[in-house]
Here is the input.
Amino acid sequence: MEEKIGIEEEKKQTMPRLGEPAPAFEAVTTQGVIRLEDFKGSWLILFSHPADFTPVCTTEFMGFAEIHGELQKRGVELLGLSIDSVYSHIAWMRNIEEKMGVKIPFPVIADLNKEVANLYGMVMPGESKTETSRCVFVMDPEGILRAMIYYPLTTGRNMQEILRLIDALQTTDKHQVATPANWKPGEPVIVPPPNTQEMAEQRLKEGYECTDWYLCRKNL
Here is the structure.
């Protein structure tokens, strides 16, 4: 019977796609009812954690609180989620402030019925049927899903990588460029590759730092 329930639960889940509108939702949070459309006009990071009052999640919440100010400088809002109750969320956040001296400034969705979790494919039955995985979804000001990262239950996220990802996405939008592996703000970016033979020949004469016609960098 439990196996049948698990299969049905898995069927209910959808998987959002990059470059498409993020699934709309309305949910109860630690800061009142919130709708996805409330964030229209700003970037949004929606992230899930497995459960309140757990050790890895506690370190992550302190990490997200630490970069919250940096995210806001970049015009990015932060929204957490797990399938715990709003009362559990409130008690846990009060505990983090009391025991660790860290105040959690962002809202956290109480997703007891898994509605949002299923919309975003946050439950991985192979790991756990009762907890959400460590997922990160980045939405742009138009509500388009721009990035997704999934981590296993045992691995805490790297907050600096999340900041780097935001910087890369915003740089791409502003300058119409791409960013290479391990890129950080201030480093050269990649010029979009030419798509005709004539443009490929011209590219090498345009003053970029080129390894070859398809891989050219420039400073912003």
Notes: The chain has six helices and ten strands. The helical segments are 2-12, 55-73, 86-100, 115-119, 159-175, 197-203.
